[in-house]
Structures
1.
Amino acid sequence: MNLEELVTTRNKYQRKLEDKNAYRELCETVGKNNATANREWLRRKIKDLDRQIEELSGL
C-alpha cells in the first residue's frame, strides 16, 4: 500500500472505532464480547498502520 492508502485506511478504522452507535449496534448483533474484541482489533490495526505510515513518511 502507498502512503495515501495507509492514511485513508487508518482514518476509516479510527472513525469506526469512535462511532458509539456502530458499537451499540454491533453489541446487539454479535454480543458485547465480540464487539469489544472487534474494537481491540481496530486499535491494533490502527497502531500497525501508524507504524507503517511512520516508516513510509521517513519520520
2.
Amino acid sequence: MTLENVSRSFDGRKVLHDVNLTLPDKGAVCFFGPSGCGKTTLLRLICGLDKPDAGKVHIPQGTRFSCHFQEDRLLPWYTAEENLRLTGEGIDAEAWLNKVLLPDAAGLYPDELSGGMRRRVSLARALAHPSDVLVLDEPVRELDEATADKMLELIAQSVGNRLLILVTHDRSQAERLGCRVVEFPLDGGAP
C-alpha cells in the first residue's frame, strides 16, 4: 500500500498535504499525533471511504479491510450477537463476546449497552472479521485502564498475519503493540 503526494482539505483547511507513505503487507503501524492533525482522515483515504483532493492512494486489488472507528457503528436493530455475525459465516459470536469481557451481552441491543460495552462489541466485530488490514481508530478510548489493558492484549493476540493500522494519542499503546510510529504534525503537513 502506498500513498503518493496525497492531500485532503475540508472547507479550505488543509488536513493532509503532500503525504508520501508506504505501508507493509503485515506488521503494525501507528498514526500518532494530536487531535485534528489528519490521522482519521488518512485512515478513511486508505480504506477507500474518502478520496484525496490530490495524489494517489494505491491499494492492492482484493485487499480486505476490517475497521473499528471512533464511533461504534453498531446496527441498533441488531443485538450484540447479531452485530458480530455481520462479519460473516462461521463467526463464534459467543466466544468473541467472552474475549471482550461481555459474556452476558449476546441478546442486548446497542441502546441497552454502556458506551464502553458498545466499543468492545465493535472491537470484537473488527477483530473477528477475516481481513488483510485491521484498522483501529482509538480502540480503547473511554475504557477504564484494566479493561483497556485486556483489550490491547486481545488486539495483540488477534492481529495474526494482517497489517494493523492503529490510531492513538497514547504512545505506550503503540509501543505495547510493537507499532512503527508515524508521527503527524498539527499543521496539516505530511507525517
